[in-house]
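hey all, quick one before standup. I had two proteins in the batch that finished overnight and I want to keep them in one place so we stop losing track of which output belongs to which input. First protein below, input sequence then structure tokens straight from the run.
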Amino acid sequence: MQRYLLLAWSIGGLAAGIACLLAGAPQAAGMVWMASALPVAAHVAIGLARALIGGRLGVDAVALFAILGAVALGEAATAAVIGMMVAGGEALEAWAEGRARAALTELVARAPRRAARILDAGVEEIDVAAIRPGDLLLVRPGETLPADGRLEDAGAVLDDSALTGEALPVEARNGDRLRSGSVNAGAAFRLRAEHDAAASTYAAIIRLTREAAEVRAPLVRLADRWAVGFILLTAALAAGAWLISGDPTRALSVLVVATPCPLILAAPVALIAGIGRAARRGIVVKGGGALERLARVRTVLFDKTGTLTPGHPRLAAIDAAPDPGRDGALRLAATLAQGSTHPVAGALVAAAAARGIVPPAPESVAETAGGGLTGTVEGRVLMLGSEGFLQAAGIVPQDGFGITAQVAAAAGSVAWLAVDGRAAAAFVMADGVRRDAPRAVRRLRAIGVERILLLTGDRAAAAAPIGRALRLDAVLASQAPADKIEAVRREAARAPTAMVGDGVNDAPALAAADVGIAMGAMGTAAAAEAGDVVLLVDRVDRVPEAIAIAIRSRRIALRAIMLGMGLSGGAMVAAAGGWITPLAGALLQEAIDVLAILYALTALRPDGEEPGDEHLPAEAGLVERQEEHAGLRDLAEALRRTAEEIEATPDGLAGLAALEARLRTELLPHHQAEERLLFPEAARRLGGQDPMAPLVRMHAEMEQLAERVAVLLPLATEPDTWPSAMLEIRRSLFALEALLRVHLAVEEEMLAGLSGEKVSPAGPALVPGRAG
């Protein structure tokens, strides 16, 4: 406010002096102009004294000498214009920083101050500081969630745009964890607080935001050092112009046009603007220093679980003996798995539910830590766990299961099922690559990152497929936290390095890297505290976006400095030569300041290299089509299973007919809906020349194979034609299964950036199994 009052005083004094001059009172005009300039000079002198006490020589000294010199030489109008120029520069600084910090201050301004707590006697209004874990809170429409907690009602609709930059509303279901800072975009709901407000997600974001605004960047400190040289250069040029010409007004002209504002303001404004731009995209950067280091990154190391992969195992394939068969084995395993909270057990239960298998209640279940489960189901003794768990009980997997074990070494891990003392099934588990991960890696290379590595504590067999799928430069597996720190330091010795992770075990490596990037949306508080950059949205493609924003912000900061100082240097030479008067110089200096600061503010805007909000409208049906993909993966599994189980006689024609019906009722309508609504809208967002053409071609190939199966079925009804028809049907089913899996993976990767939904893993890996 003080800056704006000083500007108003300067403008008022300059206008009053002009009025006096027009009224024929030049002496009064001069006095008014001096009266308007001297308070500004006093303000600058106080700021200069404070800077000297702090051990810095501020470039405002040039402005102070210019005002005092103008007063001494009787250039009252020039003194008034310089005063207005200085006051205007400070007001412009306040306005520019306000614009640059808008996204950051908006987060702080939206922080809730009151909350509604539900008690037996009714609802009471409390300060958010009074919230305690376990409190039941009422969140009304339009209110900001005051604390982290779990949803107690059936559903809720949330607006996460302030936290993540995602424009689309998010739907939550009963029991889901909700983060403070989200806005209730639907009906009122109840929230069971898990933390007090001070320990909530939003409080941490505000704390990081305030830290980001206070840290001085190296580029800003560099500008301070340049400022000292600039003052000496200005003094030398002004003194030289006076000595050579004998005219002190030339020295005054040099002082007037010596504009320090690009040095003082341009760098911090551009860097703060970059931080604000990042915040709008769900990326919290802890200060200009972190932004500068991020701009220099040339090596990126990724953790695997929870970063490049979702961190949730899924069932990729089943290999089972004829008795109990694949579905029977999954039913027995899911029954036993109900008694465990292990992620693999949860994946088996989820896979059974997806196939419509309802497991009965187990008769007894016992869990061995680090081994597996034992129990009795329908009178049969079951064991479910690792190979070593079965071997400890004297059970050796059958010979045929060795193939599955070898495949699992490349695709994931195996959970074994033994029934009545004999190995009966092997469940291949895998943790798939995030849909946005391949695009993130390609984007990193496009913006100049030279080396990308995977750094994980998992075994090499589980990590190698991830590195191969993403085309990473190296995979470092079986890394303990100390090993990760050493690996980060080795890479940092070669080039500026960023480490991306989400877990407690990643925190030391994040701290050791030049820039630590924490997946803060689903990661741990330890990782978020250790990181220099925190991603508030659970998307790994925000990593290259953060680096791109940092590169552009630093480039704009340097260009703004060079633009302002280049124009100022030219004006100083012209002033020393007598071509610019003090009054004209004051006006020119103000124009240079405005130009440099406005250019620095362009860091707020996205450029063509940064991804924008390209979410498809709801009418395009992207969410519905993605939900159908789970059924299509089940269809792909059915295609493979049916092809493997085709008998030498036409006894299985009924099953083939049912499968062909699924192709007509599930696959073809899905294709038609995509081509009618989804693909045209996606093509407009993606740009380029017919980007959806490969997917449409795959549709045509799959439909041709489905038609081939439909034509072969009637021809296979006779025993004489069955042998040849069976071979063709088997080939068609295998080809259709392979093409369908590839199509789903490619489509999900292409469309991952067009959805506001949380990124989920791609489908199961293409893993062969043995006939049941």
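OK second protein, same deal, sequence then tokens:
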Amino acid sequence: MLRHPAITALGASTIVLLVVLVSLASPLHSEFYHLIGPVRAVAVPVFLNFAAVWLVLSLLLAWGRSHPRFNSWLWSGLGVGLSWKIITNWYVLHESPVPVVVKTIFLGVVCLIFFTWVAWRSRIRPILYRAQQLAVPILGFVALSGMAMIVQSVFFTWQARHLNAPRPLHQRRGDSASSPRRGRIIWILFDELSYRQVYEHRYQGLELPAFTQLARTATVFTHTVPSGVYTEQVLPSLMTGDRYDGVRPAAAGWPLEVHNRSAGMWETFNPRKTVFQDALDAGYSTAIAGWYNPYCRILPEVLDRCFWTNHTVVPGDMYPEQSILWNSEQPVIGHLVNLARSFHLFPRQNGPSNPIRFHQQDYRELAGAGDELLRDPSADFILLHMPIPHPGGIYNRRTGNFEVSHPNYIDNLALCDVYLAHVRHELEENGTWDNSTLVIMGDHSWRVKLFWAKSPDWTEEERIASNNVTFDDRPGYIVKLPGQTTPSQIDEPFESMRTRELFDKLLKGQIKTPEQLRTWVTQRP
């Protein structure tokens, strides 16, 4: 049974489409969790592509059984194609590009086999035949895994069918409307903001006037200890005050399970035990405009207003916002284009790549959503989670626009400064800057060793700025209190895990001056 052409084709199809299948079949549900579009827009094309590849290969393999010469050429093509797919699948699943040396060796081996076959066809043909006989049962066992992945993908897709259906937000009662006399609390999280890069050792020639101006009337923490290095773990930790080192979303998007590092166990993330519930209890109106994490799915019951976005290319070169028909074409086109580019047979497009364009789109949408909140004084407890300075670069600091050629982290830092100046302008325009509390921070620092130095987009400027890929784990952390007019600096180590505790003190009016803030930081029991 494992030698039937349909089974062999199923195994080959599994290898060809493994990357897109894994994204749907994974019990981690990472693709579902961060998906902003309808699930059907990316799931149905995967199933259609798998069915099409399987059907075509089944027919070809069945035809080849009765046509030996065709069968020989067919299996030669399958041998080369599937071998290359296994190699590329390995690197894609490990989130790294295929090294040039691997491409060169593979091409050399293929050429050697071809010329050997041409020169000694009669001798090499039995070897290739035995290789085919060995490959058939192997593909049969791969087919069993493929069937399991298909079944699991269909099941998870069904569970996620209402993934981004709007969930009801918190309904504020009329008698709990926020007081116009109370100062606003605005939490700005710049993703991957490094203290070292902003204040301690700026890249030569990089000017950050808004951050410099802010430091003159704010408290700068010089030694913040991050709660982690992954945004999806850090934000729930900051909101609850518990350190989480793992997240496990359901296929439906919620509830979210988090792994409590201190307790050593998994637990359900409870929005009622976050800083946003604390703000509601204190009479504040809560709002988020945030990136990457699906805030409107996991926190709706404690938010009066919510917007989140995370435009991305999903495996198979598909876009969640596109139609099923459009996405169905992309895996085929993507396979052909990537194969051609791997051997330099197809030129790369000029201009920003899709990830850069989507990152720019995220920024623009979040800036617009944030402006709506900043211009509405009734929104008085706000989280603005911005997708910068997180690489890749989306801004040209030299020209001051989004037309980029080789953007990097340094450019994104300059954009952070532009955005901070914009926030200040908006608050000054509506007269709430002086009376507002701003907590500006990074969720983690610049992860040069973990990710970015391995990227093909890594630049010489970034190497110099990072002190030859030296990881400094201190994220930026700045607090501007209402009416603060003098600078302050806290050099003692400060656990960012205490962010919820800090907000609770601010919500209750227990920290009003830089001196009280310093006392609270340094005199923790």
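Flagging for whoever picks this up: The chain has 18 helices and 13 strands. Residues 175-180 have pLDDT under 50 and may be disordered.
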